Amino acid sequence: MSPLVYLCNQARTCKESFAPLNLSVSEFPPNSYRTRGIQRWKEHLGAERSEENNENLRVALGKKDYEQISHLLSWGESLNVDIRHDGCPLIFWAIHDSAIHDSALDVVETLLKRDNIDVDFTDDNGRTLMSWIVSFNSSHEVVGGFRDPAQRRIAGLLYQKSNSLLNHPDKDGRTPLSWAAEKGDPYVVKWLLDQPGIELNSKCKSGRTPLFWALSNCLPFGSLSDLRVRYLLETPGIEKHSWDNKGRTLLSWAAGSAQEQAVDYLLADDNIDVNVADDDGWTPLTWATMEGKERIVERLLASKHRVDVNLADKKGQTPLFWAVQEKHHLIVDMLLSRDLVTLCSAVRNGDLAMVKSLVGAGYDVKRTNLLNQTPLHSAILSGNYEIAEFLLSRTTAINGGDNEGMTPLRSAIQQRRVDLVALLLKHSAETKEIKLYEWFEGYNLTGSFYVCLTENGGEKTLSVARVNEIASSNEAIQGPQNRSSERRFFLFKNSLPWQKGLIRDSIEILQPNKLHLSESVCAGDGKHFVLSAAILLFPWHPDQKLGGLLIPDKEECRITWTIRRGVDARSEPVWVPLDFFSTLQNSGTPEDGAELFTQFLDDLERRWLGVCDLAEEHLSNCRLEQLEHKGSNLTLIDCLAVDARQWAEFRKILKGHAQDARSFAQKYCQRYNGGRGLERIRESIDRIEKRVNERIHNLDQTVRDLLQLISLPTCAFAGPC
């Protein structure tokens, strides 16, 4: 066989078998001519073969046939390993596909053993080869994590070829450690953390450190921890008190992704703030609640830190709201007893469905918020009739005041919501704390109107009419009709109805300082009586030439009530109160005449103390005037003499009031009220006498002191004589 034929046959065989051409000169006879020819043929066929192998490599890369690529790479160094597919080199694709192709890792290791391999390539997102290789978690795909050692070897080879790859950020600012922390194998993360110069807390453009990315992974059901998180948390120098660009903390991420051991680790830190809210207002508790992470919620609530369950997000929603919204019933049970604001918030927002859900879940509708307001307060303040009606159907505790003393009824009156006032009265709202002027201001009434509160079996109604129209309903004039348990309380801004004779048997003109008390039969059968009390305390207008205390005119104070003969539950004869008429500020419907008379006495005490205040102010002015005149104002003696007589007159008037009130109370309570209320009235009278007499005594002493001051020599004011 000729050398040429032999050479051609060898080339054909190699081509068919994809084996490298291997020719030996010893197979030919020793001839220099023949040797040079064979060498030239070898070079020609080798170049042809290299070009063909490069083409085969390109085809294999396009097909992602890494077994064929590995086979081709084993032929030698003549292949072009920088060959590209879609703009990226072979080594990039081998690393990129190593998560799904076992043989791709072999290709990567083979390539990295070449001296001329370029490892500084970055893709369109700026990610390096190191970034890609450490971001694959082989344990998810391969039982036992058999790829992990190979990944670490490859990462080590890359680091040896270019240590700048260790912390090289991509276009989003994420480093290889950031990617490994989120997606990589735990032991690759550990390897990175052990490398000198590793940047532990570098933040990406979203403000997250590698630990943030590790905590963003939700653990599979039943898992308690992530080794990547554990390795990061246990590394000295890891920052544990930082926020990402959306304001989320590490605890927020751990809570939202159910990283239980990470949550425990972070909660063990005495300096951690467990209530930090992100840009949406969501706290770690909110995240755990929204995601339904029951064990995390339990850990947060049981921690040594004071987790605030009442913090609302930017939309005003609390953790309990989200628990109900997402139907996380176990979390609802955990939060119900701790929450103070969610029901009130739902009420303010007019969310009736949420209100019903919360109440249905067991929320206490009597619970107050930080302002001491109940959900009913919130319903009234927001003017929501439907929700107020629903809440009233679930509770009878409707009279509590908030920190400002505002009851639901008072709020409704101030808002002039007649419909809400009627609703509250229907459910027996207490009117005792509402002052007369509040009714008139709330209903925008003048003194020519009156307000009538009607109570029957606990249910109350309110009506408004002109004073001149009272004759059509005033049973003090027409005679009371037989009514069962209905009682009416007429409130007047002034004494005009009495002065006009619209109230039966009333005294039209009052004598100043006299306590007018009366009793009269209302109907001819002797079964109905009208009882009245009235006072015009002072005014006092002494001769201004002599000086003395000036007490201006005061509004008359009047009350009237009617009673009728009836029987009690045991068929025993009793006197039953029917209607009450009053100019007092109190608007709570009295139980009986004794209670109304006690209110009258309280007002009398207030008026007496007001007179004493004026007297003390008058004497204080006298003292200043005497000091200004340095004792030379001798006319002050006449003025003080007038005052002294006035204090004596005060004692006389007060004594008469006390005697008349005791006599009237004794007679009324014993005859018409079964003795009820008498002791309370006596206590009021005793208190008035004691307090006012003490004040009058002090006034007397002040006058004596001033008279003694006036009697001193003039030099006592000017200095040594």
TrEMBL record:
Protein's UniProt keywords contain Repeat: yes
Keywords, comma-separated and alphabetical? ANK repeat, Repeat
Q: Extract the Pfam families matched here.
A: Ank_2
Which InterPro entries does the entry link to? Answer: Ankyrin_rpt, Ankyrin_rpt-contain_sf
Q: Where are the ANK repeats?
A: 172-194, 371-403, 404-436
What's this protein's name?
Uncharacterized protein
Which PANTHER family does the annotation name?
Answer: ANKYRIN REPEAT AND PROTEIN KINASE DOMAIN-CONTAINING PROTEIN, ANKYRIN REPEAT-CONTAINING PROTEIN-RELATED
Asked whether the keyword Glycoprotein is assigned, the reply is no
